[in-house]
Amino acid sequence: MDHGNRGGSGAGRRQFLMGLAAAGAALTPATLWAQARSGAGAASPGLMPSQRALLDRVCDLTIPDSDTPGALAAGVPAFVALALAHGLEGAGAPVPAARFTGGAGPDGATVLDWLTFELDLKTGGAFLAAAPTSQVQALAALDGAAYVPGGERSPWRVLKGLIVTGYYTSEAGASRELQYELVPGHWDPDVPVGPHARAWSNDWTAVDFG
Predict the structure, then answer these.
(1) What is the pLDDT of residue 123?
(2) Is 202 part of any domain?
(3) Is residue 203 assigned to a domain?
(4) Weakly modelled stretches of the chain, pLDDT under 70
């Protein structure tokens, strides 16, 4: 999926993408990945260094490396940062104070503000400085609370959805984690046919009328 310099320079690609946005073109995972590859997401627009570090770690914990690259190795944090900057899936809306544990959220809090607060709270201090096992437990607790009755409005659902979407539309996720077949289905030239075999109903050309 790496198109290199196809279609012109990085500046040219950015101008093209800006033109699409100006024309009201819908953003899709493909256009976000194009922006990420062009370098538009390299600096994680609008994010502080601590938020970038948090996003890296959470992506890594959500889909870790296995026999295939995980979310961090696939570059998903850059995808999510761009999705947040564009407010996809409602991710740009302020998180209500009621969504914070204890109703302690500040006005205008972002999804990452909420995530930082909740994970810091669950690790008893700074999530990023906590032991890996504590980080896993904190994120698992957050995830569990989001997918029980009453958790439908958890900001984690939105963020996790962006991570999963970014991963499975990335090069590694789409072609290595998932099985890829250029042309779905295959041709079997010799299939055993027994006395009880039936023809396919969609093979209408095999039906002889009259």
Answers:
(1) 97
(2) no
(3) no
(4) 1-26, 40-45, 180-187, 198-210
Residue 159 lies in a domain: yes
In a domain, 192, yes or no: no
Query: Domain residues for 79?
Result: 20-180
- Letter string b/e over residues 55-93, b meaning 16 or more CB atoms within 10 A of that residue's CB: bbbbbbbbbeeeeebbbbebbbbbbbbbbbbbebbebee
Other CB atoms within 10 Å distance of the CB of residue 141: 13
178: Cα within 13 Å, side-chain hemisphere? 13
pLDDT at site 177: 87
Task: Tell me what pLDDT residue 6 has.
Answer: 38
Alpha-carbon span 84 to 111, nearest angstrom: 8
DSSP secondary structure of 76-117: HHHHHHHHHHHTGGGTTSPPPGGGSGGG-PPTT--HHHHHHH
Q: What is the pLDDT of residue 8?
A: 43
